[in-house]
Amino acid sequence: MATQQEKKRERPTITYPAESGIRFVAFDQYKSMLQDENGNISGPRTVIAGFGAGFTESLLAVTPFESIKTTFAVRFGSYTFLRQLAQSYTAPGEKLGAISTFGIGGIAGLITVYVTQPLDTVKTRMQSIEARSLYKNSFACAALIAKNEGILTFWSGALPRLVRLMLSGGIVFTMYEKSIDLMDRLDPEKRYI
């Protein structure tokens, strides 16, 4: 019989596929709702779609175990923006290759790390045992970190996360694009998928 601690460790591995599925489907739905008449989506709208995907995942798959992830807004938003930018340099109707998609996903991972790392640093400090006596709130925590340790402290610990998110971003977005291509071939009229 598994202990409570063992169950807590197993949860991410068990629920991750469901969380990812919800996140990607939600992102596609929000993205299609926010597209203009030409099927394009602006940078701010991709951020909104990414936030919506993170919110939907949090609401349906993660809550009450985790909070809403701003990471997804940044990750999906930057990926979509970079993909559209790269697509603008290709011939009409031509799709980006797997290597290009992997690179764009990796760059989206890099952007995600450097945009969200300060939030993670503050969150980690606020979760410490002595946080209640040291900080009044998250803003006070951030101010003290900046004042006493310097601005660069917000990005301490970013390198291991950077490697992980660049690789996972490349892999996940490449698989995402290939899955979309496969579904388009299986159901070209989009009646079932």
| Proportion of helical residues | over 70%
Contiguous low-pLDDT stretches (5 residues minimum) are 1-11, 63-68
Rg over CA atoms, rounded to whole Å, is: 19 Å
Give the biggest beta sheet.
Answer: none
Please provide the ordered H/E string of secondary-structure elements.
HHHHHHH
Number of helices, counting only DSSP H or I runs of 4 residues or more:
7
Distance N terminus to C terminus?
40 Å
The backbone outline, from C-alpha atoms, is elongated
Number of beta strands = 0
Average pLDDT for all residues: 83
Range of strand content: under 5%
**What is the SS-derived class?**
mainly alpha
Lay out the secondary structure.
Layout: H1 4-34, H2 43-62, H3 70-87, H4 98-126, H5 131-134, H6 138-149, H7 158-186
InterPro entries: MCP_dom_sf (IPR023395), MCP_transmembrane (IPR018108), TXTP-like (IPR049563)
Family: Belongs to the mitochondrial carrier (TC 2.A.29) family.
Pfam families: Mito_carr (PF00153)
What would your notes on this structure say?
InterPro entries: MCP_dom_sf, MCP_transmembrane, TXTP-like. There is one protein chain. Mean pLDDT is 83; it is low at 1-11 and 63-68. By secondary structure, the chain is mainly α. Among the domains are: 17-72, no CATH class; 109-185, no CATH class. 74% of the residues lie in helices and 0% in strands. It has seven helices and no strands. The relative contact order is 0.09. It is elongated and about 60 Å long.
